[in-house]
Design goal:
Layout: E1 5-12, H1 19-35, E2 40-42, H2 70-82, E3 85-95, E4 98-106, E5 112-117, E6 143-144, E7 149-152, H3 161-169, E8 174-178, E9 182-183, H4 188-210, E10 213-217, E11 220-223, E12 232-235, E13 239-241, E14 247-250, E15 257-264, H5 265-274
Parallel strand pairs: 1-2, 2-3, 7-8, 8-10
Antiparallel strand pairs: 1-15, 3-4, 4-5, 6-7, 9-12, 10-13, 11-12, 13-14
Helix pairs in contact: 1-2, 3-4
Keywords: Acyltransferase, Hydrolase, Transferase
Pfam families: CN_hydrolase
GO molecular function, one term: N-carbamoylputrescine amidase activity
């Protein structure tokens, strides 16, 4: 019988370093999370480098790695050693000219349980991801692991209720969101609270609307590596929410931390029984959702 309860963790880190050092740091923090009882562990988006999408620079493609190379080898060995599931977001080189913002879901025996490629790709000032990433082509997935059935979506995917809904309908018990989001320093005073609040509220809404647990892992720190710019101040505030949007664990804006919370499938079932949103969906009337605009 599948486990009715298991512990998940999100790891919030400063990752403004070279790939080798970021890998060593993440391995250490994953070990710490596992020793604290976590069974499924989430790292932030693009864990192995600084957030290079602040500029459009072809030299940054050198940061990408082919499938099943450095990151997979290291975390596959670690997952098997610790007996945990690890969600590893990385910069994937699929072939010359095609790159993805991706995440391995590595099972507790070290095998690949799944691969997700970021579906929604932003293009905002200092978040120039369309220059680097081809939109994902693997769709929205619920991945069965030895610990539970999980769904992985990445950062900009956070804003789309359709992505959360499809992933939940496929059976995901938890929506994991590896993230790299922050403030433009000059905007923080005027817009920062509302931007951060919207980010949390939309994901808590996904938890409520779908009766799922939600876990978001962000990075922290000011990453200011381009001369003449203010950089991005990553706002941290990683969190885990329950199926009614309740906050089970919340990180600070500026400290490296591990958050751990329990996924309780009996609670999830009870919430869905009392708030039967899936039952009452009018799927016969939703055809227009596949249109770009209704005009």
């Amino acid at each position: 019988m599948p486990k009715r309860k298991y512990k998940i963790a999100v790891v919030q880190l400063n990752l403004n370093d070279v790939a080798e050092n970021n890998l060593k740091k993440c391995i250490s923090w994953v070990k710490d999370a596992a020793h604290k009882g976590a069974e499924v562990i989430l790292l932030p988006e693009l864990y192995s480098s600084h957030y290079f999408c602040q500029s459009e620079d072809v030299d940054n493609f050198a940061l990408a790695e082919p499938l099943y190379s450095t990151s997979f080898i290291a975390f596959s060995e670690l997952a098997k050693e610790l007996g945990v599931v690890i969600i590893v977001p990385f910069f994937e080189k699929r072939m010359a000219g095609i790159y993805h913002n991706s995440a391995y879901i590595i099972d507790a025996d070290g095998t690949e349980a799944g691969l997700y490629r970021k579906m929604h790709i932003p293009d905002d000032p200092h978040f120039y991801e369309k220059f680097y990433f081809t939109p994902g082509d693997l769709g929205f997935q619920a991945i069965k692991t030895q610990k539970g059935t999980v769904g992985t979506l990445i950062c900009w995917d956070q804003w789309y209720p359709e992505a959360a809904r499809i992933t939940a309908l496929k059976g995901a018990e938890v929506l994991f969101y590896p993230t790299a989001i922050g403030w433009h320093p000059k905007e923080k005073e005027q817009y920062g609270e509302n931007q951060y609040g919207a980010w949390m509220n939309v994901m808590k809404g996904h938890a409520v609307a779908n009766g799922v647990f939600v876990a978001a892992a962000n990075r922290i720190g000011l990453e200011q590596y381009i001369e003449g710019t203010d950089g991005i101040q990553f706002w941290g505030a990683s969190f885990i929410a329950g199926p009614q949007g309740e906050i089970l664990a919340q990180a600070s804006h500026d400290q490296e931390e591990i958050l751990i919370a329990e996924v309780d499938l009996d609670l999830q079932e009870n919430v869905r029984q009392n708030w039967p949103f899936f039952r009452d969906r009018r799927i016969d009337a939703f055809g227009d959702i596949t249109k770009r605009a209704i005009d």
